[in-house]
């Protein structure tokens, strides 16, 4: 691991408690929709650069504006790339930032409730937002936005919590086989 690589890749493995047996179950990068606007900004640089010869002596002004917009949009894309949400067998955590890096973590034992919201566009494109509720009043890991495949990630977290024995397993009062016969039609058509 070189010094420069810390600023170019999230390197979530260095935050793991390897000696305690912690391992990554899912590493979630931000959904691609978060880079659409910065990519449009980069595309807007092209006409700015094309306008340079038309500006005569002020060509440098278009160059500065174009380079500034390009640099800003590339920084936004890199910030999204460096933002990772990680699900391990022991906890969930989020690492984000380039120059200043922030780490927020929550043990599985502290997760009381997970809310998943998907706006209309999120349902179309396959992303959603997580809200973690815990017993703590103030927590560093509450809202995780633009998570791809949120239903699958929620089931992953619920499965880890259940397998770890952190929540009491509930025995069903009856099974699907109890409904065999005349009532099975109600289960198949959703009524």
From TrEMBL:
Matches recorded under InterPro entries: YdbS-like_PH
Alphabetized UniProt keyword annotations: Membrane, Transmembrane, Transmembrane helix
Pfam families: bPH_2
Highest taxon, organism lineage: Bacteria
TM annotation in the entry: 32-52, 58-81
Domain YdbS-like PH: 84-151
Protein name as annotated: PH (Pleckstrin Homology) domain-containing protein
Native organism: Luteococcus japonicus
Higher taxonomy: Bacteria, Bacillati, Actinomycetota, Actinomycetes, Propionibacteriales
């Amino acid at each position: 691991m070189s010094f420069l690589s810390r600023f170019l890749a999230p390197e979530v493995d260095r935050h793991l408690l390897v000696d305690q047996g912690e391992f990554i179950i899912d590493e979630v990068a931000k959904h691609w929709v978060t880079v659409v606007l910065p990519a449009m900004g980069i595309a807007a640089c092209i006409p700015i650069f094309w306008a340079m010869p038309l500006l005569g002596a002020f060509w440098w002004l278009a160059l500065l504006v174009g380079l500034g917009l390009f640099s800003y949009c590339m920084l936004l894309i890199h910030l999204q790339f460096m933002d990772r949400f990680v699900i391990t067998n022991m906890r969930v955590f989020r690492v984000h930032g380039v120059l200043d890096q922030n780490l927020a973590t929550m043990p599985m034992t502290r997760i009381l409730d997970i809310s998943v919201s998907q706006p209309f566009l999120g349902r179309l494109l396959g992303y959603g937002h997580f809200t973690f509720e815990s017993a703590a009043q103030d927590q560093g890991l509450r809202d995780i936005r633009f998570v791809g495949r949120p239903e699958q990630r929620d089931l992953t977290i619920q499965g880890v919590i259940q397998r770890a024995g952190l929540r009491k397993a509930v025995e069903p009062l009856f099974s699907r086989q109890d409904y065999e016969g005349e009532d099975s039609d109600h289960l198949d058509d959703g009524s």
